[in-house]
């Protein structure tokens, strides 16, 4: 038996030719990932034919809304080797994000004067955190094998849920998010495309059963059927991806959600098993777990940039931030504080902001 070294790639002899022991390498990759703070690491092949068919139908149905980049990339999203030539395997990772000391989400949603921010955006921008960790993992792999690899964190046309499911990190829930029996859904996903023929996992079985809680709870009924999401109605899309005017008929349904929506995750039974994150970068910043709509609406543009630099929220920009809060203020009780806040922006230079402020004021005048 050969004596393995720790400084070079593990090898064995087969017909007199040195070969990589990919099983041992895969085990080491998972150990490295765990040491870097990923709760799970898995490996999949790149065959996404079924997912590609679903993607093309989703696009044909127009369910991507104004996300033109989804259609622009087309089938490339389902073909990793076209995105990164030479890709043979995808290493998928999970990292928990639910902050430990965040105010109870149900309390925030029940208080119309409070601002609800999706739990994933309360701390530092996850793109930066995950990319940094993934790059460290990728560099370990490069140093060990001399391979070619590239990391992704929701930053390119990648079907990350499908790949994570194939890598046995969980299964696609009826709300279209990835679910894990051990961790629910409060986690981020990331990928490394690599040109090594690593062993792949057996795909995770689905454990949603007959449950329809996520479909029933969706405020805008954006989950039109199990595993089918019409992004045009999704509050996360409306408050983050949509750059223009929010459809009038959907505004009352948004409630006090000013950035994203977690309702389908909050009601999911599997999230009873979710573990809160210990990552300092995902800790609550700027009191965003317990802020009022009026105080956030009062931020001027320099304050917005100063407070939210390094946050995922910063990417939507100040104008969209005010648009979202104006809608939430229109859904709040017409207290003196709420009405005064709206009046301060009634002559705002942005026509987009003025439109939504005017809607909010008219809503209160009719109530």
TrEMBL record:
Please tell me where [4Fe-4S] cluster 1 binds in this chain.
208, 211, 214, 268
| EC top class, as a word | oxidoreductase
The record lists the catalysed reaction(s) as:
epoxyqueuosine(34) in tRNA + AH2 = queuosine(34) in tRNA + A + H2O
Binding locations of cob(II)alamin: 77, 154, 178, 189, 236, 261-262
* Entry GO MF terms: 4 iron, 4 sulfur cluster binding; cobalamin binding; epoxyqueuosine reductase activity; metal ion binding
Lipoprotein: present as a keyword of the record? no
- State the needed cofactors, names only: cob(II)alamin; [4Fe-4S] cluster
Subcellular localization, as worded in the UniProt entry:
Cytoplasm
By its UniProt entry, which PROSITE patterns does this protein fall under?
Answer: 4FE4S_FER_1, 4FE4S_FER_2
Where is tRNA annotated to bind?
A: 243
Q: Which GO terms describe its biological process?
A: tRNA queuosine(34) biosynthetic process
Q: Where does [4Fe-4S] cluster 2 bind?
A: 218, 234, 261, 264
Q: Name one GO cellular component term.
A: cytoplasm
Active site located where?
A: 154 (proton donor)
Q: Which UniProt keywords apply?
A: 4Fe-4S, Cobalamin, Cobalt, Cytoplasm, Iron, Iron-sulfur, Metal-binding, Oxidoreductase, Queuosine biosynthesis, tRNA processing
EC number per UniProt: 1.17.99.6
Keyword hit for Repeat: no
Tell me the function of this protein. Catalyzes the conversion of epoxyqueuosine (oQ) to queuosine (Q), which is a hypermodified base found in the wobble positions of tRNA(Asp), tRNA(Asn), tRNA(His) and tRNA(Tyr).
Q: Which HAMAP family does the UniProt entry name for this protein?
A: QueG
Instruction: Kindly provide the name given to this protein in its UniProt entry.
Output: Epoxyqueuosine reductase
Instruction: Please tell me the species this chain comes from.
Output: Sideroxydans lithotrophicus (strain ES-1)
Encoding gene, per UniProt annotation: queG
């Amino acid at each position: 038996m050969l004596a393995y070294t720790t400084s070079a790639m593990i090898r064995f002899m087969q017909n007199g030719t040195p070969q990589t022991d990919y099983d041992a390498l895969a085990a080491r990759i998972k150990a490295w990932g765990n040491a870097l703070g990923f709760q799970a690491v898995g490996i999949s092949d790149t065959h996404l034919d079924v997912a590609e068919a679903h993607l093309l139908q989703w696009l044909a149905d127009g369910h991507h809304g104004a996300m033109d980049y989804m259609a622009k990339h087309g089938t490339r999203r389902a073909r990793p080797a076209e995105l990164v030539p030479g890709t043979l395997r995808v290493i998928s990772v999970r990292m928990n994000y639910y902050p430990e000391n965040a105010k109870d989400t149900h309390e925030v949603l029940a208080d119309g004067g409070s601002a609800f921010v999706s739990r994933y955006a309360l701390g530092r921008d996850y793109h930066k955190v995950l990319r940094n960790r993934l790059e460290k993992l990728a560099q370990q792999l490069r140093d060990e094998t001399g391979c070619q690899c590239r990391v992704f964190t929701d930053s390119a046309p990648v079907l990350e849920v499908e790949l994570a499911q194939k890598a046995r990190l969980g299964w696609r829930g009826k709300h279209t998010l990835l679910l894990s029996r051990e961790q629910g859904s409060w986690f981020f996903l990331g990928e490394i495309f690599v040109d090594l023929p690593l062993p792949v996992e057996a795909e995770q079985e689905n454990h949603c059963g007959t449950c329809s809680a996520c479909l029933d709870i969706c405020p805008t009924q954006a989950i039109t059927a199990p595993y089918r999401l019409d992004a045009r109605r999704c509050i996360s899309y409306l408050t983050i991806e949509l750059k223009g005017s929010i459809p009038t008929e959907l505004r009352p349904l948004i409630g006090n959600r000013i950035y994203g929506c977690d309702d389908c995750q909050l009601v999911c039974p599997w999230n009873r098993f979710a573990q809160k994150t210990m990552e300092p970068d995902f800790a609550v910043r700027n009191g965003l777990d317990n802020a009022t709509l009026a105080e956030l609406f009062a931020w001027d543009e320099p304050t917005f940039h100063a407070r939210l630099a390094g946050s995922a929220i910063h990417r939507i920009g100040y104008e969209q931030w005010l648009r979202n809060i104006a809608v939430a203020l229109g859904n709040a009780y017409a207290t003196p504080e709420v009405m005064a806040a709206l009046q301060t922006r009634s002559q705002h230079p942005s026509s987009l902001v003025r439109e939504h402020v005017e809607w909010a004021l008219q809503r209160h005048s009719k109530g």
